[in-house]
Structure formats: structure tokens, C-alpha cells
Amino acid sequence: DDCILINIIDIRCLIKSNMVIVFEQYDYKNMKVGYLYKQHSEFINELSERLRETQSILPYEFRALEAIFQTVVKSLTQEFKYHNKNAMKILQELEYSIDKNNLQKLLLNNKQTFAFYKKAILCRDMIEDLLDDEQQLLEMYLTNPRTEVTTDCTAVNFNSSKNTQHSYGTTNSL
């Protein structure tokens, strides 16, 4: 049976033509960090809403991918805001006192921000490569026989996917 396996940031899913299996890597209910549980709950809700849409022109598997990619974008956006807020706080502290402790905080924040930047670039490149390769997108159809896909239908689906890519690019300009 054909399927799509996704592993991006903290999301691991197996997409089939009529279901999505989400592999949970954390015990979200027992975690001390509540934001991960909140992100996971929002992802599950977004995914459920997308998959229940019956009027969408996108096939089941592309609605699942769209929900996954939008969750990735939201997660990266939240992480960017976190790093930006911390950097601004440290820089404000440095305006008043340039000492060893504040410089160490700045160095640590710089390392964390650079690691985030590399992660965001990898996600962006992976999504762009996927959406730019029409043959790969055609191979991802699970609900319709690949031989019966018309050019008009794929153009509409690719345009919708490209809109997701465009919103990703404008949301996370680094």
C-alpha cells in the first residue's frame, strides 16, 4: 500500500489514502513544558479539521501535508519570536551594564538563534524542493490513480501547494 512518510521538526506522520498516523515522540500529557503539549494539540486539531473538509479540491493526502506544513510554519514563527524576544532583552540589559554575565547570555542566545536559523533554512529548502518538483508531487497522489491525473487538476493542486509555499516564505523571511 502506498503512503507518505513525513519527518519534519517534531512532526512524524505516515499519510495513507484514507488516514494519517501520527507518531508521538513525547508523552505530551506528562511533560513539564506545556507549550509542546499546546503545539501538539493545535496540530491535531488543525489536521482533523483539514481532513474533515469534503468540499476541498485537494485530495486527502495533500490536505494532510498542508496541515503539517502550516503547523511547521507556525512552530518556526513561534520559535523565531522567542529568540527575538530573548535577544532584545539581553541587548537592553547590555545598554545599562556590559558585564561578563550579560555577554555570556548574548553568546548563548547567538548560538541558539543560529541553530534555529539552520533549522528554518532546512525546512524551507525541503518544502521548496518538494513543491518545485512536479514529478515528485504526482508520485505523492494516493487517492487518485496516478495515470488518470489530468494536467488541469494537477495545476490547481500545485497552485494551492505553491500558495502554502508562498505564505511560508513571507511568514519566515530571515
Can you offer a commentary on this structure?
By secondary structure, the chain is mainly alpha-helical. 67% of the residues lie in helices and 8% in strands. The protein has a 3-stranded antiparallel beta sheet with strand order 1-2-3, covered by helices on one side. A hairpin with a 4-residue loop joins β2 and β3 (20-23). α1 runs antiparallel to α2. The relative contact order is 0.13.
Briefly note the structural class of the backbone.
mainly alpha
- Helix-strand pattern: EEEHHHHH
Helix content: 55-70%
Shape designation = elongated
Main beta sheet strand tally, sense and closure? 3 strands, antiparallel
Number of helices: 5
What is the alpha-carbon Rg in Å? Answer: 19 Å
Poorly predicted runs? 147-158, 170-174
Strand order of the largest sheet: 1-2-3
- Number of beta-strand segments: 3
What is the strand content?
Answer: 5-15%
Mean pLDDT: 81
N-end to C-end Cα span: 39 Å
Please outline what is shown here.
The chain is mostly helical and 174 residues long. The protein contains five helices and three strands.
